[in-house]
Amino acid sequence: MKFLCIDCDTQMTFEDRQQPGDGTFTASFGCPRCGRRVAMLANPMETQLVNTLGVEIGGRTLDEQPLEFTRSAVVASDDAFVDDPHPPGRGPRPGWSTEAEDRLARVPSFVRGMVKKIYSDYARERSIAEITPAVMDRAREELGLEGM
Ligand SMILES: [Zn+2]
User: Fold this and answer.
1) Ligand 1: distance of its center to the CA of 139 in Å?
2) Cα torsion angle, 103, 106, 112, 115, sign
3) Distance of CA 29 to CAs 78, 79, 142, Å?
4) How far is the CA of 4 from the centre of ligand 1 (A)?
5) 94-144, pLDDT tens digit by residue?
6) Dist. CA 9 → ligand 1 center (Å)
7) CA of 130 to the centre of ligand 1 (A)
8) Angle at 26 between CA 37 and CA 73, to 5 degrees
9) In which band, very low, low, confident or very high, does the pLDDT at 52 lie, cut at 50, 70 and 90?
């Protein structure tokens, strides 16, 4: 991931990053020519995506997150509906209503597995037995997800 200073047409250099522990991630970059600075802010979902893909920002891979998104969650996205009968974590794996599965099916396939896991984790942590579009709306609001 690179940032260019448009005025100078110069690649900005990595200055600092912060991962405050609430799932968000910020990185700041500065233009070596004019000194302009920009900062990137990623919400938890985007941070997970970056971590999952192993994207390096500023030459360093992000720290491992306690939430376990594995590369296979993305790579095996065509198998997004495969259920692990014994998932780690609290509570039973929540079910998906037909409407919720329909909505999940509209998520781009390359992130579907991860999105499904986000909603599943959200529901499990709150002992929600069945994920419905209403649950997805609430999760999206609370987690700051866009367009899922
Ligand atoms: Zn500049």
Assistant:
1) 39
2) negative
3) 36, 37, 29
4) 8
5) 899 999 999 888 887 777 888 888 888 889 888 899 999 999 888 888 887
6) 7
7) 51
8) 135
9) low
Q: What is the mean pLDDT of residues 75-90?
A: 49
Q: How far is the CA of 13 from the centre of ligand 1 (A)?
A: 11
How many Å apart are CA 19 and CA 10, to the nearest integer? 26
Distance 64 CA to ligand 1 centre (A): 33
- Torsions phi, psi of 115, nearest 5? -65, -40
125 Cα–ligand 1 center, Å: 45
Question: What would the two tokens of residue 133 be?
Answer: 């579009």
The residue whose two tokens read 């692990």 is: 84
